[in-house]
Design a protein that fits this description.
With 430 residues, the protein is mainly α. The protein contains 18 helices and six strands. The protein has two domains: 316 residues, Fumarase C, Chain A, domain 2; 86 residues, Ribonucleotide Reductase Protein R1, domain 1 (Orthogonal Bundle), CATH 1.10.40. The two termini are 41 Å apart.
């Protein structure tokens, strides 16, 4: 089941045609190893490799009767190969084929996602450098706190994306495990050496132990890494939505020529991509939960995980691939309004410098409690009545008894932040 939001690359990976191609690749790899061991005649192997083929419509026709997709596939391949088809799937069970081929598909989809993540990380770093000293108000609880730079916000996102990349690399390594160990994992009909050689030939590692299936904690880890990356994209998209609000308007997603924001209101410029990404992140969390529930199966296996995986693995990988593509476009084309950021910095009449004033008073000998009370008294007046915070402090004899005019004014600038921003960027290697 391929979701609607599917790039051509990911759509190909999860297509039925490519699934059957991958199945055939696994079956032929097993035949090659068995031929090397002398269990299959070399001439039969050559015939299998030359004639092995399938027809998707025919597989579906057979499956309508057998109600077993692997048997339908093998039957159709046998129709093309002829008598030597008896050597195909020799000593194997369906899960040997399904789980090994699924690992190949997950790795291929994962590499596609990894490339998108790397592109996204580079872009965030580029825009972080661009806005290194684009001053912006920092907000906690949605309320103005102290100045930051927009570059710091982008740098924060870049570092989280780097962590997602490391998690993803680990998840790819974990998912890249195949098994050719038979119906309950005892190698009763094929040796561990066959499994090892087949997996090496396919670019996988052999599961060190399995029952009838590769254990589903691997897939749960893969899906969890997808969900965490989706949560990061949601976090970024949500911030863009907040910054695009009319009352804030410090940044907005690109609005292309000819684009319409509303069927009724021609003035509208809505953050539709950011909202879409926020919604799709919920799907990824649901897929991860389903993956976790697939870990526990009856005894050596049942097939309750199978129907779920046919939905959640294509869904999660294609959804994240699409989200990364759209968020890359969003960040690349994001419009930033430094003048609006400056305007918002000044909205509270200098209250954003209350902590430097507090610290300066403490350093001059005031107790923290007295200094806090003194600064808060003037801050609340500005909150309630407006005015200039610096002017109020300058008119207060208690403040000026401790601080000189120059020392007080020094509290109302960004210089102290600038050198530390340089330190953060060096730490991140941006």
């Amino acid at each position: 089941m391929i979701p609607r939001y599917t790039t051509p690359e990911m759509g190909r990976i999860w297509s039925d045609q490519y699934k059957y191609e991958t199945w055939l690749k696994v079956e032929i790899a097993v035949c090659e190893v068995l031929a090397e061991q002398g269990r299959i005649p070399q001439q039969s192997l050559e015939n299998i490799k030359a004639r092995a083929a399938f027809d998707q419509a025919r597989i579906e026709e057979i499956e309508a009767t057998t109600r077993h997709d692997v048997i339908a596939f093998l039957t159709n391949v046998g129709e093309h190969v002829g008598p030597d088809a008896r050597f195909i799937h020799l000593g194997m069970t369906s899960s040997d084929l399904l789980d090994t081929s699924l690992a190949l598909l997950c790795v291929e989809a994962g590499k596609q996602i990894q490339g998108r993540m790397e592109d996204f990380h580079r872009l965030l770093c580029e825009r972080a450098r661009e806005h290194k000293f684009t001053w912006q108000i920092g907000r906690t609880h949605g309320v103005h706190a102290e100045p930051i730079t927009f570059g710091l916000k982008l740098a924060l996102w870049s570092e989280e994306t780097a962590r997602n990349l490391r998690r993803w690399e680990a998840a790819l390594e974990e998912i890249a495990a195949g098994k050719i160990s038979g119906v309950v994992g005892t190698y009763a009909h094929l040796s561990p050496e066959v499994e090892q050689q087949v997996c090496e030939r396919l670019g996988l590692k052999a599961a060190s132990i399995s029952n009838q299936i590769v254990q589903r904690d691997r897939h749960a880890s893969y899906l969890s890494a997808i969900a965490i990356t989706g949560a990061t994209l949601e976090k970024i998209a949500l911030e863009v939505r907040h910054l695009q609000r009319t009352e804030v308007r410090e940044a907005e997603e690109p609005f292309k020529k000819g684009q319409k924001g509303s069927s009724a209101m021609p003035h509208k410029r809505n953050p539709i991509i950011a909202e879409r990404v926020c919604g799709m992140a919920r799907l990824l969390r649901a897929d991860a939960l389903a993956g976790l529930e697939n870990v526990a199966l009856w005894h050596e296996r049942d097939i309750s995980h199978s129907s779920v995986e046919r939905v959640i693995l294509p869904d999660a990988t294609t959804t994240l691939d699409y989200m990364l593509l759209k968020m890359t476009d969003l960040i690349k084309g994001m419009v930033v309004y430094p003048e609006r950021m400056e305007h918002n910095l000044n909205l509270t009449g200098g209250l954003i410098f209350s902590q430097p004033v507090l610290l300066a008073l403490v350093e001059k000998g005031a107790s923290r409690e007295d200094a806090y009370s003194l600064v808060q008294r003037h801050a609340m007046e500005v909150w309630e009545r407006g005015g200039d915070f610096l002017r109020l402090l300058q008119d207060d004899p208690e403040v000026m008894a401790l601080l000189s005019e120059r020392e007080l004014e020094a509290c109302f600038n960004y210089d102290n932040l600038r050198r530390n921003i340089e330190t953060i960027y060096k730490r991140l290697g941006i």
